Amino acid sequence: MKKWSIVSSLLLLILLSQLPDQGSKIHANAEENDSDELVDPPKIEDKLGAVPHGLSTDSDVAKREAESISRKTLRNSAEKFEFQAEVSRLMDIIINSLYSNKDIFLRELISNASDALDKIRFLALTDKEILGEGDDAKLEIQIKLDKENKILSIRDRGIGMTKEDLIKNLGTIAKSGTSAFVEKMQTGGDLNLIGQFGVGFYSVYLVADYVEVISKHNDDKQYVWESKADGSFAISEDEWNEPLGRGTEIRLHLRDEAGEYVAESKLKELVKKYSEFINFPISIWTSREVNVEVPADEDESTEEGTSESTSEEEEVEDEEDGEKKPKTKTVKETTYEWEVLNDVKAIWLRTPKEVTDEEYAKFYRSLAKDFSEEKPLSWSHFTAEGDVEFKALLFVPPKAPHDLYESYYNSNKSNLKLFVRRVFISDEFDELLPKYLNFLMGLVDSDTLPLNVSREMLQQHSSLKTIKKKLIRKALDMIRRIAEEDPDESSDKEKTDVESSDKDEKKGQYTKFWNEFGKSVKLGIIEDASNRNRLAKLLRFESTKSGGKLASLDQYISRMKAGQKDIFYITGTSKEQLEKSPFLERLTKKNYEVIFFTDPVDEYLMQYLMEYEDKKFQNVSKEGLKLGKDSKDKEVKDTFKDLTKWWKDVLVSENVDSVKISNRLDNSPCVVVTSKYGWSANMERIMQSQTLSDANKQAYMRGKRVLEINPRHPIIKELRERVISDPEDESVKQTAKLVYQTSLMESGFVLSDPKEFANSIYSSVKTSLKISSDATVDEEIEADEAEEVETPKEVNEEDAAVNEDADTEPSYKDEL
């Protein structure tokens, strides 16, 4: 036992003596490595140009990330997918586009990043833990450049995307906007509008030939989406890059011809131009040189004294202590930092006097994703105070969206963004404005609504009705102001008061508005009874006295004849057709003005717009037209009483309600009008063209047809004479029917039996050409049956001969 204890003690002493040597060796190795390479890899922010808040990584992770950044090929382990057909077509258009303004890619990526940040901030209202802690809670957009590898990265700390989201949003399932945008581009559309169709991401291929999207959602692992725009993309679990925590980073491997986007100055310029009013800070990782004071060695200081250099030497004496401070020199050092590019205060929080027209135009372009040169037609920036406090900014776009009326009643889409205490809540809430104003762009920032708001809560919230009412009033005032400021809409007296520069800029603006959004005003008159009169003032139309320009109801009333009580109008398919209508003959002759309504929605409009400024509307193609009394009316009626009674009996099969003397005709023999509260001829045609129309149900709404005759016309006068002499004459009855059918067609109705009408016309032509009514069409000369049978035989014999020749002679195929 004693021997074993002695041996173990000796071994322990030997081991302890070796430890200091090993420690000194490790220390020595560390000192050697200090000069060459750090043992621990540097943090991302240590002058490597990456995000400064990144995590510390080991050497393997740093190596894998460097490989990932420099690669331009899809990872072998990634899961491959094919792009959906419409997306492939879209990408082909973009890649092969000769579009010169490639700058739009950056604004589209920043816009998408802003949307992702909006979503996570909204979810955080009800679940604060969803934001995480530390850097993850910072809602920001960061841009970083790798000039050496020509890689541009845009990162956000938004909601991020799961694997399923990456597949759905970036490849296989095309949104409705994809098809619409492709069609627009193929018909000569502008690529600049790509953001309005929801497919702005694909604009990256204007400048990049390989794109990586690294994304981390709270509910999934971190994934990498990558594509070379060759018809396919790949997704793999991210094992190469540093953990994002949450959010998305897009890496663009720039093409050789897109080298200008590696310059910091170019990116700063683009952010200022397109994304100045994004609601989240946009920062760029930038380098700059600063002067730093460092201790100066005595040898160096003597050299610097003899030769001029960029650094300066300073020697300072402490007057109080009389001691000299150590000598220092100033050297230039490159530092990296985040520079915020959009430090402009939210525009709607400023007073309207502080905001310039150019700033309003810039903010509109950012909000609407419309970066054309056109400015919004008008805007309204106001603050509402009282029980309900909110700030709002509304814009009238210069052009209507491509799908404005496609799903008018089924769409919940709204162009109005809702903020609560500067926090974005939703842009899918359509209760703040009625549907007929859904073309307006803008935002509402309320201090009254609760932050943890939901769609259901908003619908029931007491403040909502007040906000909606004020928004409608301000919106209509804004549209009315376009008309008031337009010189074409003003009277000659008002025109002289307008400055020439403003006059040129505002000229024709309301006509432009009406051509784009006039149908919305009409729909408003139908839907919004409380604002019907306000909207009627915005109504525009052409008339018999407008001279090809648009006129208002107020202008019409100012031109009314003395004693005129009704506003006359007529509906149809085109102005040119209506100008030749027989309904206008007497009205035009007596110098009455008649409004032309040529839009199908006008028929529905006039069912709701019954009067304006105590003047009733009168459709001149319906019963009830009054143009003043004539002392001879009763006498004329008595003279043609026999004809009208006889004609009604002749047309009993045509469902004619009555035959009357007309007060609206001048040159035409007759015309067919409808009852006052039934459908007009134009409305009948519109309803018949409906896809799911029911002819049986429509019969109840058809107006009763009344044949009005012109007692001064020679045809009518001759018919009267013939009826008096022989009321049973069949030729006279046929003539009366033909005259009715002709007037029915001229009045805009569709004939129920076109064949009968055609036969009547042909009979009339025969009579005028003095062809006997018994004359028939010559029968066709048919070929003999024998010839028909022989012909196939001859053909068969020829075929047989050809077949024999083919058997005896070698074919071309054999020769080959």
TrEMBL record:
UniProt keywords, alphabetically: ATP-binding, Calcium, Chaperone, Endoplasmic reticulum, Glycoprotein, Nucleotide-binding, Signal
Annotated Pfam families: HATPase_c_3 (PF13589), HSP90 (PF00183)
PROSITE patterns: HSP90
Residue ranges with Acidic residues bias: 295-321, 776-789, 796-808
Compartment(s) of residence: Endoplasmic reticulum lumen
Location of the region described as Disordered in the Swiss-Prot/TrEMBL record: 294-330, 483-504, 773-816
Signal peptide location: 1-25
PANTHER family listed in its UniProt record: HEAT SHOCK PROTEIN 90 FAMILY MEMBER (PTHR11528)
Organism whose genome encodes this protein: Kingdonia uniflora
Name this protein carries in UniProt: Endoplasmin homolog
GO molecular function, a single term: unfolded protein binding
Residue intervals of the Histidine kinase/HSP90-like ATPase domain: 101-258
One cellular component (GO) term of this entry: endoplasmic reticulum lumen
Binding site for ATP: 108, 112, 156, 161, 169, 175-177, 196-201, 248, 455
The organism's taxonomic lineage, starting at the top: Eukaryota, Viridiplantae, Streptophyta, Embryophyta, Tracheophyta
Protein family: Belongs to the heat shock protein 90 family.
